[in-house]
Structures are given as structure tokens and as C-alpha cells.
Amino acid sequence: MGLGFWAAFFLLAFASVGAFCGVRGLLAANRWVAVTHALLEWNARLLAAVESAEAGSRGFVLTGEPEFLSSYASDGRLARECLRESAAIARDPGSRGELAVMGTLVAKKFAFMDETLALRRRQGRAAAERLIAKGEGKRRMDALLAAAAGFAAGERRLLEVRTAAVRAEAALTLTFLAGGSLAGLALLGAVFWTLRRESALRRLNEERVLQLNELLARRKLELEAANKELEAFSYSVSHDLRAPLRAMDGFSQALIEEFSDRLPSQGRDYLGRVRAAAQRMARLIDDLLALSRVTRTELRREAVDLSALAWSAGEELSRCEPGRRVDFSVAPGLRAQGDPALLRVVLDNLLGNAWKFTALKPRARVEFGAAESDGQTSYFVRDDGAGFDPAYTGKLFGAFQRLHGSSEFPGTGIGLATVQRIIRRHGGEVWAEGAVGRGATFRFTLPR
After folding, report:
1. CA angle 363, 365, 367 (to 5 degrees)
2. Which is nearest to 366 in space by CA: 383, 380, 343?
3. Going by DSSP bridges, is the β-strand pair 430-434/440-445 parallel, antiparallel, or unpaired?
4. Packed helices 242-258 and 2-63: angle between N→C axes, nearest 10 degrees
5. Cβ atoms of 346 and 420 closer than 8 Å
6. What is the arrangement of strands in the sheet containing 430-434, beginning at the earlier edge strand?
7. Furthest C-alpha separation in the chain
8. Cα separation of 129 and 79, whole Å?
9. Which residue ranges make up each domain of the chain?
């Protein structure tokens, strides 16, 4: 029995070391697969941003509406963000080279669109359309599409290689785990051979573990399928929905401006409603995409000056509505650990809500500060605006949940849901206090 015990012990130790190495290799291979998926996603979002920017520039050429320039500018920023994020995570030399080429092609495409917009401003629509008709913009877009397709094809080949590596590491890990299981059974049989009842119970537990592993594997496949569906949905939203909405809005505006004298008042009213609905749908899509990105963006923790972020957000609100009389105050020196970009989204939403729901007051007050309770710091945004019924507090942070009519206070009902997801990703909590007509206070915590 002594020799069998030590043989089983050393076999178990060997299997454990092998399983550990296999798991480490499996995790490394999985990380590479995740990088490839992320690069494919950023590539799709880059193309969607460029195509959307092209739709915005053409909308401005057709209508001269400044809102198309705002959309064009935001799509340009998104395209540059996609290139930066892709370059930050790409490690394969071939991928980095292709990204550099795509960056050059994107710059050329935006340079042409900038030239077209400048010509539209200086010489009018006809001059800009003549420049577009020469086909240079299409040639640059075709070159970018070809480069993006080549990049995606290369990444898919890498994905196949890396997926095969994951399977190989998984097979090796399972082999060691199986050897470890057999060694464990032999060890238990050598040491506790008289305790048959306990051995039977132990076998039942092992079967249950295997069943749970199988269930976990099925859940993993389901999660991967759900993630792929989410990626497809995000691409569809960003590409297949936003561009048609902008086209509807732009052509409706063109009809109003160019054929207004031939349209009855009811026809102009219908076109105005089409534009308003298209713009509301575009805002809702943008908010949904922002909510989706919050859950998938990598969290980067660092020291954040919350007071500075709050002042910046307040100044932007004041610039948007310079006629408002709002006493805006920020407690100095408030700092926390977190992702600065995501925490800026939190403050933009909370301060934006406070600003919005005090709009009916001739002189309003909005405050950002902090309080200590039981050794825990909670940050708050307080206003003296419309407030809310405390009975509906549980609905505040749900997506599409609104306690006020859109005619009174516009919005999509996504902002507080976004706030809650960001704070929970940081490991904190968020809650609200308020009363109808007496303002509201939104509090949140962040781990130190």
C-alpha cells in the first residue's frame, strides 16, 4: 500500500503541474482569440463610421444643414478612435502594417470629404456636386473597403490559427485533468480502501462535477453565441439603421426647402414629423450604442479628479444654454479611483439630468459634492428641480423608464441605466432620493 500511495501521489502532483501549465496556456490562447474578435469589431465600426460620415457630408452638400456637419464630425472622431484602439491592441506585425495603411486611406477619404464640404460652403451645392461626380471620393472609399476586407480576412485566418491553439491547449489540459482524476481515485483507494461508503459518495460528487462542467461548457457556447449576436446587432444598428435615418432626415429637409411653395401646409407638417421622428430615433440609437459600449469597454483604473470633471461638464451645459440662471457649485478636491472616460459619462448624465429637470425654474441650483458615512464616501448630484415620486424609485435606473413626459422633459430613458452599469462595473452602488417638486439627489459610491 505504501508504494501505491507514493506512486499515486507523484502521479497526481505531475498531473496537477501539467494541468496548471495547460490552463495558463489556454488562458493565453483565449486572450489572443479575444484580441482578434476585438480587432474585427473595431474594423466593422471603422467602416460604419466612415460610411456614416460620408452620408453626413452628402447630406450637408444636398441641404446645407449644419446638423449634418455635427454628425460628420462625431463620425470622424469615432473613426479615429477605432484606428487608435485597433493599433493599441494589435500585436501581429502584419496586422499593424495593414492598420497603418488603413489609417492613411481613412485620412485621404476624410481629406476629400473636407475638401467637398469647404467647396460647398464657398461656392455652393453645384460646385460640390461636380467635385463628387469626378469619382475621386468613390475611388478612395473603394480603396479603403478593399484594405478593410483584406485586414478582416487576415484576422479571420489568425482567428482560425488561434482557435486551433485554444482547442489544442484545451485537449492537453483535459488530458492532464483526466490523469489527475485517475491518480486521485487511486490515491483515495490506497488510503481509504476500507471506507467504501465514503468512496461511493465521492464518486457521486465527481459525477456531479462532470455534469456541472458539461453545463458550464454549454453555457459558455450560449454566451459566445449571444456575444456574436450582440456584435452583429451593434454593427446593424451603427451601419444599417443610422445611415438610412440620416438620409430620411436630409431628404425630408431638402423637400421642405426646395418644394415648400408646392406643398400644402399638411404636407409640410407631415415632413416635419418625419424629420422629428428620424432625429428621435437617431438619438435613441446613439444612446443604445453608448449603453452597449459601457458594458464592453475595458475598465482602466487610475486617479480621477471628479471635481474637475464636474466643472467641465457644468461649463459645457452653461455654454449650450447661456440664458439659463443656474447656481452651479462643485466641492473642491474630490478624487477617486476609476476609469476617467466612464466617470465623465456618469457626471455628464447626472448633471445633464439636473440641468434638464430644473429648466422650469427661473433660478435653479445644481450641486456636486460628497459625504462620509461609516467610513464610506458617497458622491452626490443634487438639484432643486421637478423631483420624482419616491414610490417609483425602483424604475429610475431601468432602460427606457421615464417618470416625466417627453413633451415636458425630452430624453430617451437610457442615461440613468448607463450610470448604473458604469458604477456597478467599478464595484460601487448608485441610488436616488427625491420628492415631487422638491428636487432630487443622486448618490454613488466608488471603491477606494
Report:
1. 165
2. 383
3. antiparallel
4. 10
5. no
6. 326-330, 364-373, 376-383, 440-445, 430-434
7. 103
8. 24
9. 2-193, 302-445
> pTM surpassing 0.85?
no
Instruction: List phi, psi (to 5°) of 372.
Output: -105, 135
**Alpha-carbon distance values, 368 to 230, 272, 435 (Å):** 36, 39, 19
Question: CA nearest 446: which of 327, 331, 299, 321?
Answer: 299
Look at residue 119 and tell me whether its pLDDT is greater than 80.
yes
E strand or H helix that includes residue 184: helix 136-191
- Asked if pLDDT for residue 336 goes beyond 90, the answer is yes
Least confident of 95-104, 300-309, 399-408: 399-408
Cell of residue 97, nine digits: 502594417
Per-range mean pLDDT, top range of 132-141, 150-159, 413-422: 132-141
Nearest-CA neighbor of 113 among 152, 56, 167?
56
- pLDDT score at 135: 87
Write the pLDDT tens digit of every residue in 194-242. Answer: 678 888 888 888 888 888 888 888 887 876 666 566 656 665 665 566 6
DSSP 386: S
Give the helix/strand (H/E) hosting 97.
helix 93-123
Fold: same for 2-193 and 302-445: no
CATH code that applies to domain 2-193: 1.20.120.1730
Grid cell in block for residue 270: 407631415
Q: What are phi and psi of 381, to 5 degrees?
A: -120, 120
- Three-state DSSP class for 328? strand
C-alpha cell at 195: 471506507
DSSP category for residue 374: T
Architecture of the domain defined by 302-445: 2-Layer Sandwich (3.30)
Place of cell 457556447: 221
3-state secondary structure of 254: helix
Looking at residue 66, what is its pLDDT?
Answer: 86
Angle at 390 between CA 388 and CA 395, to 5 degrees: 80
Task: With CA atoms as reference, report the closest residue to 286 among 414, 110, 401, 408.
Answer: 414
